[in-house]
Specification:
The complex is a heterodimer of chains A (312) and B (278). With 312 residues, chain A is of the alpha/beta class. Chain A contains 7 helices and 12 strands. The interface between A and B is medium-sized, with 15 and 18 residues.
Chain lengths: 312, 278
């Protein structure tokens, strides 16, 4: 007895798994989120055949925006082939008959967990980020209704107090992934646990970013060409992870976000975190045709928009 | 200090007497008909109060007389039932502060009102550093330069006579007197127009109490901040206050100059309060 024989036939499900009401609600919430950049819009998170916390937020957004003409890329920590990414990709493709790809340039919808692709996204592309905790004020204000009041008042002083405390105690900003950003000069937003490396990619980006937390039932958005500024002081600046001197063991790429792999005799090797980009680099090295897009960071580690990452 | 009106030069032989300062100046703070009920309980009824620039006014009364409630309402922490509240500070002159929206109330509270609570944990973040606690005031007012925050925090802490080498210790590990000094530094960091002290030295032993009072006296002399101090300790009031209000059951029963009230009380309750000894 196979799983396919136990499951309902394909035609028993509505297009994109979610029913029409759910998709309409989600699309309305997304429009509201786009209209108020960085503002967390509550929505009725639906039950899905995967567990909460495994990307149900991003999945619902993707299911309600894809059409059969779209091309989908799903990544998990930069990898296209991890279990989470593979399962989500298969499920979405089965329910929407959307074409899938691992190429960032070919994709129109990219669902991602913890990473933004290395190659620059362009106008018309949609990046859907899975969010475990949408509330950037959680660490300073555990009470969510009080945190909502603080958002309403734009009362973010405590975040800068946190920065002050980190500088006094440790001499640098300690926040790693999920670095809080101020969107359009108004709402403080958690960019989902993307590394600091990816945070500047959201600033004045050509693409639309949708962020959705299924368990917390909140979604928010960064529309194209919107200011996204990481919180920092005017004399002590936000910095991305230092990737200088790290060379990808497979492709020889440098100044990209690397995974660190410990080796048996001590020390570590590095590998490109973005596997789709690495695969294209390898294809080109073999002499096959591969179109490489412009990346957010060039090979010297300079960000493509000057003045976004300020030097000390 | 207000600019004095231009007066004709007096002739050398006839000395011209100016009316007392309090009469010449417009009050900084004007409170009219303040009332507050909690259900059946009347906490405050019909309190009127004026504070003139640079003076210190004390409120005394037994526990439950409504003096702390008045202070909380002056700090705009709590809504009132009736009453008007005017503060002659730039941008807010002539407006009833109780009727402001929460955004402007918050702006005013950050910029113009400093408060020291009896319990330090009400006014401080016990786990953040002392310097950070003071710096938060400036961050709230929009300061985003780390070096400036650091300097302003150490300046404010120095002027409340807090030891410079403990600036990075959290209030949780400080003594009670030190915690009060951090609160005081936080309250005066932005040079507010009005300083509210809610039993600032209660809970400290007598020697530390004297040192904190010394600091308060010096600040009053140097900065001439208009101060309202609430205490049930008549010694504190006598040391600090120019004028005093006596409250009982939410109403003011007597008010006047401190020496006059404490040495020659007219109201039976005040007489009882002044003569009370253990």
């Amino acid at each position: 007895m196979s799983l396919a024989s136990l499951a309902h036939p394909r035609q028993d499900f509505s297009y994109g798994f979610l029913d029409a009401f759910a998709k309409r609600e989600l699309r309305r919430r997304m429009l509201k989120a786009i209209a108020i950049p960085g503002f967390q819009v509550p929505y009725a998170s639906r039950e899905l055949p995967i567990a909460r916390g495994w990307g149900t937020g991003g999945l619902q957004v993707t299911l309600s925006i894809v059409s059969p003409t779209d091309t989908l890329k799903v990544i998990d920590q930069g990898a296209d082939d991890s279990v989470n990414a593979a399962n989500l990709r298969r499920f979405i493709a089965r329910m929407t008959s959307v074409a899938t790809t691992t190429d960032t340039l070919a994709a129109t919808v990219i669902q991602s967990r913890h990473r933004v692709p290395e190659e620059r996204l362009r106008e018309g592309q949609v990046l859907v980020l899975q969010v475990p905790d949408p509330e950037p004020l959680r660490q300073v204000q555990p009470d969510s209704s009080r945190a909502r009041e603080m958002h309403a008042d734009a009362d973010y002083a405590q975040m800068w107090l946190t920065l002050y405390e980190q500088l006094v105690r440790f001499g640098r900003f300690m926040q790693g992934a999920s670095y809080p950003v101020l969107v359009h000069g108004r709402y403080l937003m958690s960019p989902s646990p993307i590394p600091r490396w990816d945070t500047p990619a959201l600033h004045q980006a050509a693409h639309l970013t949708l962020l959705s937390a299924g368990r917390e039932k909140r979604l928010y958005a960064v529309p194209p060409y919107t200011d996204v500024r990481p919180i920092e002081f005017e004399d002590v600046f936000f910095q991305v992870e230092n990737m200088a001197g790290r060379i990808c063991m497979l492709t020889g790429a440098r100044n990209k976000f690397m995974d660190e792999l410990p080796v048996a005799e001590g020390g570590s090797q590095f590998r490109l975190s973005d596997t789709g980009y690495a695969a294209k680099l390898l294809r080109r090295a073999r002499g096959d045709a591969a179109t490489l897009g412009a990346t957010y960071f060039d090979d010297e580690g300079h960000f493509y928009q000057p003045g976004v990452i300020r030097a000390e | 200090m207000n600019i004095e009106p231009v007066t004709p030069q007096p002739q050398p032989h006839q000395r011209r007497l100016l009316p007392p300062r309090l009469v010449r100046q417009a009050p900084l703070l004007e409170l009219r008909g303040l009332s507050k009920r909690y259900g059946r309980i009347v906490a405050v009824q019909g309190v009127n109060l004026e504070l003139y620039p640079g003076e210190t006014v004390g409120i005394v009364g037994e526990s439950g007389s409504g003096k702390s409630t008045v202070l909380r309402m002056l700090n705009l922490e709590e809504a009132t039932d009736t009453g008007t509240y005017h503060l002659a500070v730039p941008g807010f002159t002539g407006q009833n502060l109780f009727a402001l929206d929460r955004f402007h109330q918050r702006q005013l509270r950050i910029q113009q009102i400093g408060i020291v609570y009896q319990q330090p944990h009400m006014g401080l973040r016990m786990q953040a550093t002392s310097g950070g606690n003071v710096a938060e005031r400036l961050i709230m007012a929009g300061e985003r330069r780390f070096a400036t925050l650091r300097r302003a925090a150490s300046d404010a802490l120095a002027s409340s006579e807090f030891p410079a080498d403990r600036i990075d210790d959290p209030p949780a590990v400080l003594s009670g007197g030190m915690q009060q000094r951090v609160q005081l530094a936080k309250a005066i960091a932005l040079r507010p127009a009005l300083l509210l002290l809610d039993e600032p030295t209660t809970g400290l032993d007598v020697s530390i109490q004297a040192l904190v009072l010394d600091t308060l006296l010096r600040l009053r002399r140097e900065r001439q901040i208009t101060t309202l101090i609430v205490s049930h300790d008549l010694g504190v009031i006598r040391t600090l206050a120019d004028r005093v209000l006596v409250m009982r059951h939410g109403a003011v029963v007597e008010c006047g100059l401190t020496d006059q009230i404490l040495d020659d009380p007219q109201h039976p309750y005040t007489q009882q309060l002044v003569s009370a000894r253990l």
